[in-house]
C-alpha cells in the first residue's frame, strides 16, 4: 500500500481527482515511494470557485494555489520529477510576463535562467534580482545566461555578490516582488563547505516576507543530506508555521521513505 499521506482539505472535486489518480498510480507502483504532504491551511470552498459563465480557473487557483499541478506532484511522488523541476512548475503557475522575482541563491544559474524565461517580455519590465555569496557562483550564472539568452534578456537580470539576508538593500523599495526562491545547501561542483545557514536563511525569509506582493510565493528547495541541512529545514518549517492562516497558505512536500531527498516548501501569500 502506498505510504502517501495527505493532511489537507481540498476542493472536493479536486481532492477526488487527486486521490483517484494517486490510487491508480499506487496500484501499479506500489511501495515505490511515499510522500508527506502537509498544509497549514489549503482549504477551498467549491461554492466560491464557480463563476456564472462556468469559468472556475481564476478563483480556483487563488483559493487553491496548487490546483492544476496534480500531475506534477504525483510525478514528484513517483520519483519522475526532480524537486527543482516541480519548483519551476509551481513558479510557472504563479508568475506572469513582466513580473519581478528574486533568486536568493543563484548557484550555477539554472533557477535564475528558469525565472528569466518566465518573466522576460518585450516591454522589458520583467526583472530577476539574483544573489549569491560566492563570486564563482555568480560567474557561473552569468556564463549560463550568456550561453542561453539574448543580451536584451540578460539585461533584465541583476546579480549581486551579497548574502540573501540583505536582499532588501539591492531591490529598490516598494518593488512588487512576485517570487522569492531559495535553493538551499552548497554550490553543486563547488566548495561543499560553503552552505546556506539557518541564521541567514531565517533573516532572508523575514526580508522576503516583507517584500512579497499579494498573490506571490516564497519557494524553497531544502537539502537535508549535509550537516546542518535538517536544522535548516526545521528553521524553514518553523517560519512557515508561524505565518498567519488568513494571509498565507504554506505547504511542504517530503518523501518519507527517501529521507535524504530534497524537501519542497511553498508559502503562498494570499
Ligand atoms: C544549492 S546552490 C543553488 C543552486 C542554484 N539555484 C542553481 O540553479 O544552480 C546554493 C547556493 O547558495 C549560495 N549561498 C550560500 N549561502 C548564501 C547566502 N547567505 N546568501 C546567498 N547565497 C548563499 C551558495 O554559495 C550556493 O551557490
UniProtKB/TrEMBL annotation:
PROSITE patterns: PROKAR_LIPOPROTEIN (PS51257)
Annotated protein name in UniProt: Uncharacterized protein LOC110427609 isoform X1
Signal sequence coordinates: 1-15
Gene: LOC110427609
Keyword Amino-acid biosynthesis included in the entry's annotation: no
Alphabetically ordered keywords of this record: Signal
Pfam families per record: rRNA_methylase
Domain of life according to the entry: Eukaryota
Amino acid at each position: 500500500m502506498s505510504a502517501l499521506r495527505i493532511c489537507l482539505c481540498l476542493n472536493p472535486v479536486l481532492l477526488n481527482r487527486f486521490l483517484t489518480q494517486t490510487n491508480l498510480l499506487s496500484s501499479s507502483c506500489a511501495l515505490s515511494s511515499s510522500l508527506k504532504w502537509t498544509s497549514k491551511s489549503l482549504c477551498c470552498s467549491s461554492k466560491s470557485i464557480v463563476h456564472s459563465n462556468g469559468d472556475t480557473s481564476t478563483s480556483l487557483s487563488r483559493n487553491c494555489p496548487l490546483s492544476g499541478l496534480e500531475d506534477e506532484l504525483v510525478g514528484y511522488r513517483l520519483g519522475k520529477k526532480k524537486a527543482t523541476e516541480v519548483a519551476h512548475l509551481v513558479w510557472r503557475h504563479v508568475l506572469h510576463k513582466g513580473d519581478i522575482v528574486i533568486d536568493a541563491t543563484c548557484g550555477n544559474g539554472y533557477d535564475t535562467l528558469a525565472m528569466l524565461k518566465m518573466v522576460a517580455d518585450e516591454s522589458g519590465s520583467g526583472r530577476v534580482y539574483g544573489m549569491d555569496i560566492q563570486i564563482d557562483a555568480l560567474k557561473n550564472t552569468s556564463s549560463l545566461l550568456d550561453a542561453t539568452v539574448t543580451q536584451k534578456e540578460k539585461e533584465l537580470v541583476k546579480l549581486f555578490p551579497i548574502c540573501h539576508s540583505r536582499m532588501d538593500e539591492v531591490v529598490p523599495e516598494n518593488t512588487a516582488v512576485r517570487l522569492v526562491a531559495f535553493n538551499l545547501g552548497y554550490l553543486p561542483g563547488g566548495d561543499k563547505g560553503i552552505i546556506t545557514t539557518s541564521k541567514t536563511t531565517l533573516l532572508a525569509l523575514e526580508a522576503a516576507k516583507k517584500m512579497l506582493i499579494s498573490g506571490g510565493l516564497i519557494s524553497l528547495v531544502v537539502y537535508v543530506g549535509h550537516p546542518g541541512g535538517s536544522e535548516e529545514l526545521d528553521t524553514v518549517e518553523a517560519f512557515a508555521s508561524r505565518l498567519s492562516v488568513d494571509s498565507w497558505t504554506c505547504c511542504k512536500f517530503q518523501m518519507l521513505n527517501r529521507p535524504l531527498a530534497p524537501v519542497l516548501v511553498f508559502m503562498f501569500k494570499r
